Automatic annotation (TrEMBL):
Residues 1-21 form the signal peptide. It comes from Saccharopolyspora dendranthemae. Belongs to the glycosyl hydrolase 2 family. This is Glycosyl hydrolase family 2. Residues 85-170 form the Glycosyl hydrolases family 2 sugar binding domain. The keyword Metal-binding does not apply. Keywords: Hydrolase, Signal. GO terms for molecular function: hydrolase activity, hydrolyzing O-glycosyl compounds. GO terms for biological process: carbohydrate metabolic process. The keyword Signal applies. PANTHER family: BETA-GALACTOSIDASE (PTHR42732), BETA-MANNOSIDASE (PTHR42732:SF2).
Length: 281
């Protein structure tokens, strides 16, 4: 068992002790529907606890803002109402409980004052099927496909000193659009089931340094493992990777060029073109 610790230029530790984010405040006009299937926890869900947990097991950072909760929602020709994100419109917990081919989500949020000088990354766990994301009327992302996460750097779209307006326009025709849908159908029955449209995973925001780790690729094998820290760093910057045991004791550490993989075996570790002997404790 190990914990990767990554550094770009100055030391940046990727800790695993994220703190709960504050939920956005909204008028409590949302009412859940009666779902066809319930659990012992269904009645416990509401605007103040809509998936409040930190959503990413890797690259956990202490500062983040959970954007789940009540959003304004317009589906097709229906009047604007409120929806509980990240529950799909078809679900009872969303408060909508119907399918709309066209969906418009809107809400505002405030950027914490102590995030000044950082890049702001907006994350979506999943949106089904095609999503167009705008901040303050400026498009920041377009994503197709309902099962994969996506992110956008929204720093340049943020307006200092004002609430930020976030808009997500979504289209989802289930089997009528050219995207993988599994067994979701507009007319469910038998082995086919009701679709899960729109935003159906956590939406969240985090501040990062201009040079930061964007993703960790960890590949184990029989002789060791490899780590590739994908970064938003410039050429020539270095990544430091440390391996710690279950008790947190550092076992080994090495550095290498940003964007190049590091590999450990029982005898050697390699980052980029450099190979050194591996020490263990």
């Amino acid at each position: 068992m190990f914990r990767p610790v990554t550094t770009i230029a100055a030391t940046v530790l990727l800790t695993f002790s994220g703190v709960p984010a504050s939920m956005a405040t909204a008028e409590q006009t949302w009412q859940p529907g009666q779902p066809p299937l319930t659990t012992p926890w269904t009645d416990q869900v509401g605007p103040d606890n809509a998936l409040p947990e930190y959503p990413r097991p890797q690259l956990t950072r202490e500062r983040w803002l959970n954007l789940n909760g009540l959003w304004d929602y317009t589906g097709g020709e229906n009047a604007t109402e409120q929806i509980l994100v990240p529950y799909p419109p078809e679900s009872g917990l969303s408060g909508v409980q119907r399918h709309d081919d066209q969906m418009l989500y809107e809400r505002t949020f405030d950027v914490p004052a102590d995030w000044s000088g950082q890049r702001l990354i907006l994350h979506f766990g999943a949106v089904d099927q095609r999503a167009e994301v705008s901040v303050n009327g400026r498009q920041v992302a377009v994503h197709e496909g309902g099962y994969t996460e996506f992110s956008a750097d929204i720093t340049d779209a943020v307006e200092p000193g004002a609430p930020q307006r976030l808009t997500v326009a979504v289209s989802d025709g289930n089997e009528t659009q050219p995207y993988p849908v599994g067994k979701q159908r507009n007319d469910p029955g038998g082995i086919l089931y009701t679709g899960a449209s729109g935003i159906w995973q956590t939406v969240w925001l985090e501040p990062v340094a201009p040079a930061h780790v964007t993703k960790l690729d960890i590949t184990p094998d029989l002789t060791g493992f490899g780590i590739n820290a994908r970064t938003a760093a410039d050429d020539g910057e270095q990544v430091e990777v440390a391996v710690r045991d279950a008790e947190g004791t550092e076992v080994t550490k090495t550095t290498g060029p940003a964007g190049e993989p590091c590999a450990w075996t029982s005898r050697n570790r390699t980052c980029g073109r450099r190979t050194t002997r591996t020490s263990t404790t």
